[in-house]
Design a protein that fits this description.
The protein is of the alpha+beta class and 297 residues long. The chain has eleven helices and nine strands. Strand 6 and strand 7 form a beta hairpin.
């Protein structure tokens, strides 16, 4: 079975309309050409394809000490990854589902593709709906150019199951808790606050760790936290600590400020294939040494 036939034409997209999608190619080309310009403003069309978030990592024990995680909504996420050589075919699937010529999406830089199953749960233990998506994502941004291209395609269960047979780059599962919060923006008349959310991810299994009775997050004592906002300016305010997530204080490390080797080791796409390997364990030892030293200080 080819990827092109794995999704039926009835698939829907949470993406821009055809008329707004027509300007994406020019927008992405502009983003590529001006990547080094910190003040370059992204186009309206590009913003609709871009997610803005800032990632932190901290000891799981510290998170559980500061938060009653069971009191927050949660989802169980299972995601299977595709090899990069399959991305062109998946891009064609997305363009067909969107109803636009392939050339209109051709300049969007995609480095990762996956299918995801999400099972929702409420704090009272009630199971919510299960959803399925095909996700195409670009390279991670940085503080100079925060933001990451993301195309998320809602699909039906049958379509998801067809794609599973083609997802050959590993599997990863995690438990995610969501906390609503706010970012404070200083200014005249006391400034303003804008809503945002923190997504706390606890790795359950990945790569060769799949099937273990003990979640990886517990075995290796770490959690990742993504703060999602709606603009690059808001990312910079989060970096400055102008947010409502007090549990991050004195313990959370901003992921983008870590050495590149540690960032690479914690790539979810890499861990889906290689599991919690020597690179991850070595990085965790360094992080725990840092946390232990700060606790003693």
């Amino acid at each position: 079975m080819s990827i092109a036939t794995a999704i039926v034409p009835s698939v829907t997209l949470s993406l821009p309309s055809v008329s707004s999608a027509a300007s994406i190619s020019d927008s992405i080309t502009s983003r590529r050409d001006n990547r080094q310009a910190e003040t370059a403003a992204p186009s309206t069309a590009l913003k609709r394809y871009t997610e803005y978030e800032l990632r932190f990592v901290m000891p799981l024990a510290l998170v559980e000490q500061r938060l009653d995680l069971g009191s927050f909504p949660s989802v169980q996420i299972l995601q299977h990854y595709f090899s990069r050589n399959q991305i062109p075919a998946l891009r064609r699937v997305a363009a067909e589902a969107l109803g636009v010529p392939l050339k209109e999406l051709a300049d969007i830089e995609i480095t990762s593709a996956r299918v995801r199953r999400t099972d929702r749960r409420s704090p009272d233990g009630t199971d919510g709906p299960t959803s399925y998506t095909l996700d195409l994502k670009g390279p991670k941004g940085d503080l100079k150019r925060p933001g990451r291209a993301e195309i998320s395609v809602p699909i039906e269960r049958a379509q998801y199951e067809r794609l599973l047979a083609l997802a050959d780059r590993g599997v990863l599962s995690k438990l995610r808790y969501t906390i609503e919060g706010a970012v404070s923006v200083p200014g005249i008349r006391g400034g303003a606050t804008y809503p945002c959310k923190a997504e706390i991810d606890l790795l359950q299994s990945c790569g060769d760790f799949v099937g273990s009775s003990q979640p990886a997050c517990e075995r290796y004592n770490f959690a990742t936290i993504d703060i999602e906002v709606d603009s690059p300016e808001a990312v910079r305010h989060v970096v400055a600590g102008r947010h409502s997530f007090a549990f991050l204080k004195d313990g959370a490390l901003e992921f983008g400020a870590l050495p590149e080797k540690i960032q690479d080791a914690f790539s979810t796409r890499r861990m889906a294939k290689d599991g919690v390997d020597d690179a991850v364990r070595k990085s965790l030892r360094k992080l725990h040494s840092h946390w232990d030293a700060n606790r003693r200080a």
